[in-house]
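Course assignment 3, question 2. Fill in each field.
Student: A.L.
Task: Predict the tertiary structure for the chain below.
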Amino acid sequence: MNQERLEMIRGDNQQFTIAAQVTAGGVTTIPDISSWTIWMTGKLDKADSDAEALFQIKTPTEIEITDGAGGIAVATLPTTATSSLTGTTVVYFDVQGKEGGGAIHTLAIGTIKVLVDVTVDTT
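Answer field:
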């Protein structure tokens, strides 16, 4: 599992690369995630329910597995994921992966510091 401290600008389409690693019995391996379901959830408070999340994105729409055998996927946050924030905000996130057989793994966990941009009107 990777622990991350990321930054982005409010309302931007932001891409994050996910490099999957799984540790079992003290051994870390790179799994083949070709058939996995992967989702990324961001919350303003860790105690919030998933229904209260600021965003929750998932394969195959917002998360694309780009190298399944190499354990690589790319998550793309849509502009709507953070556009409602009114000040610099820390968002808690994790990335979960579910194997075809049902086992669930936390692939990344951390924070995203969302910085406020100056331009709001993009019409």
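Instructor remarks: Residues 43 and 49 are 9 Å apart (CA to CA). Strands lie at 2-9, 14-19, 22-24, 27-29, 37-43, 55-58, 63-67, 72-77, 89-98, 104-115.
Grade: pending
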